[in-house]
């Protein structure tokens, strides 16, 4: 069976990359487009199963694309925009949008909205994702998905080892709580006997190098001198 095909029309590269990443991880086939005219050209060639559409686009406005679609098809459309005024939301829905999400938003919420719209329209859910009720942790420029074991920082997917991910997830699920090195060893490694605390130190250094903008001045993973570490949300 062919994968559900989603067209993402979004001119902000960072937003487009994160949304494409999450939709792809959820099992969808994503075509990402950054301007309205290219979107219309692609839609004329082949209609996707669903369109995620920014309203403010170069060349051709998102409202024109939505109107074009509604004149020709019943393809579901989720409007994605920075416009927050209620009248803008009502306009989008009255023009035929199936759902409306304002920026900033949780990527996992968007994936959930996509699934819901496809279910309402009789579209296929992503394979193996029907019972996925995970909640992505979102902290500024950092997103952590526990089920997919996916970390996105500064709009790019971060390649973490299993222990690095487990450390980050434990800290992020307990923001501002201070963990000693021995507590981290026990909860992440499952070791109650004495193990060199330097193991934790090395993993924390590597984790900072991967997710922090400035590892020497970390934003999220803080050292509490003489005690251990904590996560600053």
Walk me through what this model shows.
This protein has a five-stranded parallel beta sheet, sandwiched between helices. The protein has helices at 13-25, 36-45, 62-72, 86-94, 107-120, 162-172, 181-189, 198-211, and strands at 5-9, 29-33, 50-54, 77-81, 99-102, 137-139, 142-145, 150-153, 156-157, 179-180, 221-224, 228-231. Helix 3 (62-72) links the parallel strand 3 (50-54) and strand 4. Mean pLDDT is 83; it is low at 124-134. It folds into two domains: 5-120, Rossmann fold (3-Layer(aba) Sandwich); 137-231, Winged helix-like DNA-binding domain superfamily/Winged helix DNA-binding domain (Arc Repressor Mutant, subunit A), CATH 1.10.10.10. It is built from eight helices and twelve strands. The chain has 233 residues and is of the alpha/beta class. Helix 6 (162-172) packs across helix 7 (181-189). Helices cover 39% and strands 20% of the residues.
